Amino acid sequence: MADTPRITTVLIDFGGVIAEEGFVNGLKGMADVQGLDPDAVFHEAVEIMYGCGYLVGQAPEHVFWDELEKRAGLNGDMQAKREKLLSGFIVRPRMLEIVSMLAAQGRTVAMLSDQTDWLDELNKKYDVFPYFHRVFNSFHEGMSKRQPEFFHHALQELGATPQETLFIDDSTQHVALSRTLGLTAIHFDSVVQMEKELSEICPDMRPLLEQPPYCRP
């Protein structure tokens, strides 16, 4: 570890890390109620989201829901489905504490999220943006975490190098890509597991993780 550059920048995912994964839970829950295969509906939803243009701000929301109904059979009022989905994104207070701790250690902490304009609605509810130095949202940036360009863009905007950047995400695909680009990465499975790995990568975080203050920006 002595020859490893100090982590100066941290990129953190929203859904599945900062908050419970509402997209997964919401879609599977709605599929189950309608007697559909939850895993099949979720798989179709992911591919549609990445392919229809809504994720990167190139199509309106109804295109996503219309295509999902056509391909997976998930029907119902769009507003009701959106509300059900968004209700599953429950912010984890402990993760916001950790974001504050990282910033208190002098690190740049940014959100890197494959989200639509739903993230703006969730911020109105939870007011999470002030915790971060910068929010990179696919809907506004026009690219996703399936593209190396999104990572390059974030690093360039933050003035960071891959070798000094940590990426935390619950997607194995996104974590694998980030590592090929030279970033250190944690595949998020639980808060406890993430804290353990974080303390190993950033030893100066250990005292704060053991006795964490809650720091509101």
TrEMBL record:
It holds the Pfam family Hydrolase. This is HAD family phosphatase. The lineage of its organism: Bacteria, Pseudomonadati, Thermodesulfobacteriota, Desulfovibrionia, Desulfovibrionales. PANTHER family: ALPHA-D-GLUCOSE 1-PHOSPHATE PHOSPHATASE, FLAVIN MONONUCLEOTIDE HYDROLASE 1, CHLOROPLATIC. It comes from the Bacteria. SUPFAM superfamilies: HAD-like.
